[in-house]
């Protein structure tokens, strides 16, 4: 996380949380030292090679600071956390069932043993083909990079608005294709990303799970935000002040809540704050992450613990609580 996202402090906190049971405290300063050096080099290289003009947040947002959200919207953020908790647990369950099916299938196992290098090529060809702009990718903004996709979803403007500038219209054009609207495209994006990320995670190559689930949550949150903007086109009234709906804030909450549900981490909220460079939505993000975590932890293990169980790797058991005096 420190190298990829330039997140030294959340990177260390995240690594501590995903550690199954114990974390050696003596490695605490070592983790921070390595993370800070990695993040510093990453950001300096970005500036030196002219990718950025100065050091800034990776997915910088420009949400309104005075009234970023209305207290009445907290119920919607809570419901986002509930949905992300159930859907995150379902995604972990679906991932485990698919991997177990692959291992129990004798024909598939025999094929993989005989064609060890053919399977990754076939999967890569299938995923790249189905997500190409000429195929399903035309509904998934596949002509954009991950950075551009998240930047657009976190954008502080309404996609369905008729008062967009040229830059905003160009960004929305990737999600509003002929024959389909943004809500259908975002739905396709969430489902396709979820299924294809499960398929890609079975490849015998280093891969990441955090980015796909983060994008899925961001897309779902954007759907909710755009829906709220349509239902309340003039914003939510608070006394004499009218607060316009900020769909980008819903996207940030959705990304944090779904990623937190899949990984069973609360530090993902700190990751979001550093990625966006703003803490205006700290309360909605914390509500979404805590609610999704509470639900997901009851239903399924985290994706990392699930992989450990599938591979039957040795791990330290949980500390059993005991009552005092026994």
From TrEMBL:
Keywords: Membrane, Repeat, Transmembrane, Transmembrane helix
Pfam families: Voltage_CLC
Location, primary (coarse class): membrane
Subcellular location: Membrane
Gene Ontology MF annotations: voltage-gated chloride channel activity
Topology class, membrane: Multi-pass membrane protein
Entry GO CC: plasma membrane
Keyword Transcription regulation: no
Superkingdom classification of source: Eukaryota
Name of the protein in question: Uncharacterized protein
């Amino acid at each position: 996380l420190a190298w990829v996202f330039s997140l030294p402090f959340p990177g260390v906190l995240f690594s501590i949380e995903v550690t199954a049971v114990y974390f050696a405290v003596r490695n605490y300063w070592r983790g921070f030292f390595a993370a800070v050096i990695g993040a510093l080099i990453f950001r300096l290289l970005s500036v030196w090679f002219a990718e950025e003009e100065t050091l800034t947040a990776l997915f910088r947002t420009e949400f309104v600071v005075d009234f970023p959200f209305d207290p009445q919207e907290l119920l919607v953020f809570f419901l986002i956390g509930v949905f992300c908790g159930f859907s995150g647990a379902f995604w972990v369950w679906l991932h485990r069932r698919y991997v177990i099916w692959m291992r129990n299938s004798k024909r598939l196992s025999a094929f993989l043993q005989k064609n060890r290098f053919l399977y990754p090529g076939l999967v890569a060809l299938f995923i790249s083909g189905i997500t190409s702009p000429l195929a399903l990718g035309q509904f998934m903004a596949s002509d954009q990079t991950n950075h551009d996709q998240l930047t657009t979803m976190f954008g502080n403007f309404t996609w369905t608005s008729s008062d967009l500038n040229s830059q905003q219209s160009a960004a929305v054009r990737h999600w509003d294709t002929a024959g389909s609207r943004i809500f259908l495209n975002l739905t396709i994006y969430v489902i396709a990303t979820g299924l294809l990320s499960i398929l890609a995670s079975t490849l015998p190559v280093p891969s990441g799970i955090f980015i796909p689930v983060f994008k899925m949550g961001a897309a779902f949150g954007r759907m909710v935000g755009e829906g709220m903007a349509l239902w309340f086109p003039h914003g939510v009234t608070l006394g004499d002040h009218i607060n316009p709906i900020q769909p980008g804030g819903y996207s940030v909450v959705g990304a944090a809540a779904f990623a937190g549900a899949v990984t069973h981490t609360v530090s993902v909220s700190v990751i979001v704050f550093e990625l966006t460079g703003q803490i205006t939505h700290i309360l909605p993000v914390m509500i979404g992450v805590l609610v999704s975590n509470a639900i997901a932890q009851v239903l399924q293990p985290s994706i990392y613990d699930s992989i450990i169980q599938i591979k039957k790797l040795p791990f330290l058991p949980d500390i059993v609580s005991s009552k005092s005096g026994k």
